[in-house]
What does this fold into?
Amino acid sequence: MPAASQEPLFIDRVLARIAHVGAPVCVGLDPVVDRLPDWARGASDAERVSAFCRGVIDRTIEVAAAYKPQSACFERLGSVGFRALEETVAYAGSAGVPVVYDAKRGDIGSTAQHYAAAAVSLGAGAITINAYMGPSTIEPYIEAGLGVFVLVRTSNVDSGVVQSHELNGGGVVADTVATLTRELGEDYIGSHGSSDVGAVVGLTKAREASHLRAIMPRQVFLVPGYGAQGGSAADLQPLLTHDSTPGRGVLVNASRSVIYAEDAGEAARRMRDDLAAVIV
It folds into this structure.
């Protein structure tokens, strides 16, 4: 069992925020320099990225249950880009909104410990993890006090090449990762009954979601694929839990369809209302 802590688990903070805003809206912060609007001003690309992310946060803060900065969009700008990432995480944190650091880390041992320490130093509350190398790619992040979202069934079109590969003993690779995710999360259950070890399950893979939900009943699913990737709120039904957990066990991410909309705030509000109509 984990040591007692005065700090609430990340998942409890997220669920409290979902209850506050009324829907499990996660705004993905994926800033691409060539797509930044004129109002995102600065002396350098990194300054424009930072200004853009602050502006998106300001416009969506009333409905965002979480923000998910995509690390690669910042890292490609070098050290100044990472500084923009730090500023973005701090800005979201100062507004009291949980942050999922979308870094998709996947190393083991002391290397994973270094990555975990870096995520904590950044100020993130949770991180996305690729578990291909086994449990030791996940455990250092849990031990560092971070929430974790393990890649189980992702939304990209070619994910099935690996994730849907059938195993001799039955099931597919995604089932194995789902089982690992559930087992690692059993000792990290929050006050709402959800685990601090969650799973990434794409909305575009909703046909498989009921099976994955049966394997992982206590996991909150971080759900990409809404909006620009073609997923809709109606597709969420197989991913939902059957209890009264805020958000019904999902945290739905939208990036491009919100942050590059003419009015990001209005786009986020439409997303909230769309999700709330399904999650009743």
